[in-house]
Design a protein that fits this description.
786 residues, alpha+beta, six-stranded mixed beta barrel, six-stranded mixed barrel, 51% helix
Length: 786
Amino acid sequence: MRDLRLALRSLLRAPSFTLPIVIVLGLGLGANVALYSILQTVFLRPLPVAERERLTIIKTQLKGDPLKWGVSHARFEELKACPCPFTNMAESLCESSTTLQLADRKWPVAMSMVGRGWFQVLGMKPSHGRTFTSEEEATGAPVAVLSHRLWRTAFQGDPAILGRTVLTGESPIPVTVVGIGPAGFEGLELGRREDLWIPLQGAKISQGYFSRRESLAFSVAARLKPGVSRFQAQVALETASAAMAMAHPDTDSGQHLVLESLEASEQKLLKRVLPQRTLLLITSGLALLLAVVGTSGIFAARAAKREQELVTRYALGADGSALAKPLLLEALLLALLTAPVALGSGLWVARHFMLNPGQTAKDAIILPQLDGRILALGLGLSLVALLLAAAIPLLKVRRMNPARALALKGGGATLLKGGGFFVMGQVGLSLILLVASSVALHAFRSAAHMGYPTAHRAFMVVDTTNDPGLPDRLLARLRAMPEVTKATRGIAAPLANFIFRFGIRGGERTEMEVFPGAVVAGDWFSTLGVSVLEGRDFTNQDGQDKVILNENLARRFFPNASAVGRTIELGSNAHLDIVGVVADHRMRPDAEFHLPMLWLTQDWLKMNTSCVMVTGRGSARAILERMREAFSLEKTGTEPEKLITLEDHVAATLHQENQNMRLLGSLGLGSLMLACFGLWAALNLQVALKGRELAIRMALGATARQLATRILGLGARLLALGLVTGAFVIWLLTRLAASHWAGLPTLSSLDLLSAAGALTAAGLLACLIPALRAARTNPSDTLRNE
């Protein structure tokens, strides 16, 4: 206990030693805590279903499309009639945004409409009440099962909710609550929340969902027969897909039914939360390395400063264990102080990465929580890192020279003594990280490029089920407003998931090929701000025989001539005249920017929703208010399904790219701070070790400016050595990468120069504080202490 008190007193008397270690090492370890807590939250999620390994999801894979889609109702019915390796299967349709009408307010919920036997396929037992009976599923009775989370939040866990009637939807529909789902179950797919379930048969949805084979909207859950492997089930699905393609070549050609495990949704969530897992793994490792190196530099500086004290104790009879014990106790106490910083910063980062843009913690589906595993990780990492960092003074204890130290020869300081090598390593490593983050940021910015401006634009999605003329009336109102310069409509907003695919051929392509497309009205491209390279935009007078291609698709079909005025064949009968070619831009949420795509006129397809797009003068927020005003004049007392600025919509959709850029920016900023911290600590040591020399120089006539310049010169030399070391390593890495990994982003001299310039400026600024301290040296006090 006496040694513990001494170690604690020693730490409290040296805040310039204790605080930097706690903060820097805590933040460095926080990156590792964040990574582990996210992985644990995603992969260690217990799902309250029976025999999870036999439960699977059936999806549709379209030829040439990396995404997997749902299954059409017609194909699901045919699949049930085929010989298949499943004991049972059921379908569901999720409505992601509806409301629950409570007494005081509207509660946003995600409602899932489930087909017959859905809960039986899942093997899910309700925590209260029951699930649907066969009769309720067959007749579409107005009943509902609430998720455990919705029951706890909206109804405060009131068991009397069973048997009560609640209202759902904007046009309220009464349903009777018959059960509460088990805790922890909010749908099969992690990352897509389901708050309540109603029978599919009684849902108020368009019959097009059931009749159109192209409507890949249904989620199909199936349970494998005992003893049947996933590979055998996939072979059976391939056979069924081939039979459907032969029976329906116009709609089912190029579509394959595929199995997707429950773990696939975990991987998708992990890809959204940690879009660059390898990058974050490298980042967390380098952050830990930088933090340990920086801490080792501080320990080395402290060891050099305390060398005479330790040697004096050694000369007076203290053995190695007696000298090492206080150092080990200091490392232990620092670990206890560092662990809360590591745990707090790590959990904050993890929760931040798992929240969607604009989402609050109470709305999140799944968030990391502090538990025994994460607590043990934080404490263990802190202790191991500090023991590694303290190895420098512990080794110095074993190599003491009392005669040299007591003769005051040990007090001299060279440039690389007392952590100088560590500072060089920090600066070099920081330069490597800054350059890597700069190169990767340029690549991700290019990937997130939209091809059109997002400022001064907004859109709303409205339900036209019972009012098909609503979009045109809204457009008339909006165009009459002085703040609005252009307004148009389409089936779906930019970057929306609901995008159609069409089979076309023409020009030099004689075989039918499938490409994504959209259905829009006149002035769509001018409103969105997309350049028309050839021909013209749509007008409201264009009929079904007109089409616009993007630049990529036009080059593919007509590489040697202009596409405008030519004809392509859509499906087996329709021939379309090309009236325009527009610049490539992101209409889909795909990562590929230059995706071939085509646009058809609004006469091609009628849907129950419509997207009204507006561009105007002033801020997008002001435009939103005008749009809300126009909608309220048409639909008093109701709200559109979605009303958002294009800028916010793009930011939410490109969450992955934004996470990448935030991660890389944090990596660059963190490495810069650690390098500056290392320089500051090393020069503080130099000022302490050279105190006698600085005092003598000042006593002999040196000015404060000369002393400050001397210390700045030491810092500049350390900085230069580190920059040269880092540049040499970067040169080696670029040569190695060029010979082994093709397609990596290229390093430009501008990236290297800008990183070196930023590091130099920040480093010299960090050197200024010790230099000013040296300039305030008091010769009489210093020499009296000597």
